[in-house]
Design a protein that fits this description.
Blueprint: E1 2-7, H1 15-25, E2 29-33, H2 44-49, E3 52-57, E4 65-70, E5 75-78, E6 92-97, E7 100-106, H3 116-138, E8 142-147, H4 171-182, E9 186-187, H5 188-192, E10 218-222, H6 224-227, E11 230-235, E12 251-255
Parallel strand pairs: 1-2, 7-8
Antiparallel strand pairs: 1-12, 2-4, 3-4, 5-6, 6-7, 8-10, 9-10, 11-12
Helix pairs in contact: 3-4
InterPro entries: AP_endonuc_1, AP_endonuclease_F1_BS, Endo/exonu/phosph_ase_sf, Endo/exonuclease/phosphatase, ExoIII-like
Keywords: Hydrolase, Magnesium, Manganese, Metal-binding
Family: Belongs to the DNA repair enzymes AP/ExoA family.
């Protein structure tokens, strides 16, 4: 099973690049974030023509999350994170696909720091930690995939960067991510590539894409049983280079399905 996550940064405006990637990569499951489209404008029919069923939770202007499945419709289980601090923001959706529970999330950015947006980021993270622990307790095979807006370590950002003090690198953000891993989740990209940089995001600013000044903020976390099935993981960098592309590239994992 090939499972991918992509912050599409406007699903309607970047639909052509999404279709080009789907046609090339043929992922079995896709988690999308930042749809930036209200519920009724999600391109479900066009995706169905490509062979993908979908469940989604849209939001006008900002946020929005979706799960796509090739050859089937995901079985929707949740459209919100339990205990999330602001239910008006579409940041979490959960569905079963092929015997695996998929949680698609868009964790708040948190900037500027300090301030209410950073407080909201940490509060949302606490809700995620609680739900993630509950998911592990069930014993179900789970993937928590999406844009976490956290650079876990200095190995996950280009050298001599200018992000000092940014919410993505704050000690509180990194500590929350480490607490998540400590529950028993496996960071799939880091597990497969322990010593290699695999950026998933390059800002539009300051020529960071052509200069390869990237960050790893899109993560796929696996429950213990799925970690044993992890075969490969990577990032489809070429998608970031398409005309009008998102500032993120798809990150993916391959599971053996034993």
């Amino acid at each position: 099973m090939l499972i991918a996550t992509l912050n599409i940064n406007n699903v309607l405006g970047r639909f052509d690049s999404l279709i080009e990637w789907l046609d090339d990569a043929q992922p079995d499951v896709v988690c999308l974030q930042e749809l930036k489209a209200e519920q009724g404008r999600f391109p479900a029919e066009a995706l169905e023509q490509m062979g993908y069923g979908a469940v989604w939770k849209g939001q006008r202007t900002w946020n929005g999350v979706a799960i796509l499945a090739r050859g089937m419709t995901p079985i929707l289980t949740r459209t919100a994170l339990p205990g999330e601090p602001d239910s008006s923001q579409s940041r979490y959706i959960e569905a079963a696909v092929g015997g695996v529970l998929i949680g698609c999330l868009y964790l708040p950015n948190g900037n500027p720091v300090p301030g209410p947006k950073f407080d909201y980021k940490l509060a949302w993270f606490e809700a995620l930690l609680a739900h993630a622990q509950d998911l592990l307790t069930t014993g179900a095979p789970v993937v928590l995939a999406g844009d976490y807006n956290v650079v876990p370590t200095e190995a996950d950002i280009y050298p001599n960067h200018s992000y000092g003090g940014d919410a993505l690198l704050r000690p509180e953000s990194r500590a929350a991510f480490q607490r998540l891993l400590a529950q028993g989740w496996t960071d799939a990209l880091r597990a497969v590539h322990p010593n290699a940089a695999r950026w998933t995001y390059w800002s539009y600013l300051r020529e960071r894409w052509p200069r390869d000044k990237g960050l790893r903020i899109d993560h796929l976390l696996l429950s213990p049983d799925l970690a044993d099935q992890l075969e490969d993981a990577g990032v489809d960098r070429w998608v970031r280079g398409l005309d009008g592309a998102s500032d993120h590239a798809p990150a993916w994992i391959s599971l053996t399905g034993k």
